[in-house]
Automatic annotation (TrEMBL):
Gene Ontology terms, MF aspect: outward rectifier potassium channel activity; potassium ion leak channel activity
Residue ranges crossing the lipid bilayer per the database entry: 101-119, 125-148, 232-252
Residue ranges of every copy of the Potassium channel domain listed in the record: 87-151, 239-286
Database matches in InterPro entries: 2pore_dom_K_chnl, K_chnl_dom
Its membrane topology: Multi-pass membrane protein
Keyword entries, A-Z: Ion channel, Ion transport, Membrane, Transmembrane, Transmembrane helix, Transport
Compartments, as annotated in UniProt: Membrane
Protein name as it appears in the record: T family of potassium channels 18-like
Assigned protein family: Belongs to the two pore domain potassium channel (TC 1.A.1.8) family.
Highest classification ranks of the organism: Eukaryota, Metazoa, Spiralia, Gnathifera, Rotifera
Length: 307
């Protein structure tokens, strides 16, 4: 609310400067047109001749200077317009109805701060907002990174489980028949009962003598087995990332009307937390004064995709 009120106030200041600049330019153009289309000499019959001569002299000086200063005047006008936009973020919009600090854009700003992307489409303009943003970032960014670390670990476990299940299914489905057929071909030889008994006695003796030593070893072996995890190949991870970026590209292409290259560029810049800020969802619709529901929907979807 603080930033919204300050942005409206700043926009209204820019609107006032813009109107004053336009009024000055309009007056200058009107004077130029009037002096070029009015025959001042016709006033000589009803007016003071000295005053008419003085007015004619001013007209001549004005027109000579005006014709020389037209390029400089237009450049100055352009410079002032750009300065008003950069300083006050005013470009002819309705300052109250078209403020950029709506709920959805504020949510997108918060998520871009927490994830360290920082699009830069909106920024705090008051010193109170800047201090709050610094404190919020110092606390929120570590918490967000901690949550993302935990979430990434859980997602990695899920992917490993799915990958191992897929590998197990493939082995059982396509390799199990061959294994059972090869096992059926092997005929068991005759078992020497005496050798079996001797080996069994040795095994029992060793197990009794090393009972205390065998327990920690078994525990270590269980820990080793529990620590063993299935490694997902690099190309599988690359395919997952590619599919995620492609899904975001198609989604933003349909929502924003961007080209596929532009949507892919935005998705990758967002996922890699670079966040240049040259492309932001909802901004083009907002600047065109389109339906606010469309802007809000696109900003919410962008926030979900970002997180």
């Amino acid at each position: 609310m603080l930033e919204k009120h300050a942005s409206i106030q700043k926009c209204e200041e820019g609107e006032g400067k813009y109107k004053a600049l336009v009024k000055k330019l309009t007056t200058t153009i009107f004077d130029y047109v009037w002096l070029n289309t009015t025959n001042i000499g016709s006033y000589s019959k009803t007016s003071n001749r000295a005053w008419i001569n003085k007015l004619i002299e001013k007209e001549k000086i004005f027109l000579d200077n005006y014709n020389k200063d037209i390029p400089a005047m237009l450049l100055e006008y352009r410079k002032n317009i750009i300065e008003i936009y950069n300083t006050y973020k005013y470009s002819g919009q309705n300052c109250i109805e078209d403020t950029s600090w709506i709920l959805e854009s504020s949510l997108l700003f918060t998520l871009s701060v927490l994830t360290t992307i920082g699009y830069g489409h909106i920024t705090p303009i008051t010193w109170e907002g800047m201090i709050v943003c610094i404190c919020f970032s110092m606390i929120g960014i570590p918490l967000c990174l901690l949550c993302l670390s935990k979430l990434s670990g859980d997602l990695a476990d899920v992917f490993r489980s799915l990958f191992s299940s897929m590998i197990f299914f493939i082995r059982e489905r396509y390799l199990g028949k061959n294994h059972s057929q090869n096992k059926a071909k092997i005929k068991p030889d005759k078992i020497d009962l005496n050798m079996f008994s001797i080996e069994r006695l040795h095994f029992i003796k060793n197990s009794v003598e090393n009972d205390l030593d065998s327990e920690p070893e078994s525990d270590d072996s269980e820990e080793d087995n529990s620590e063993k995890k299935v490694s997902v190949p690099l190309f599988i991870v690359t395919i997952i990332i590619f599919v995620y970026v492609l899904a975001g590209s198609i989604m933003f292409k349909n929502l924003e009307g961007w080209s596929l290259i532009k949507s892919t560029y935005f998705s990758f810049i967002t996922m890699s937390t670079i966040g240049f800020g040259d492309i932001v969802p909802g901004i083009e619709h907002f600047e065109k004064m389109e339906n606010k529901n469309t802007v809000n929907r696109n900003l919410l979807i962008a926030g979900i995709y970002l997180f």
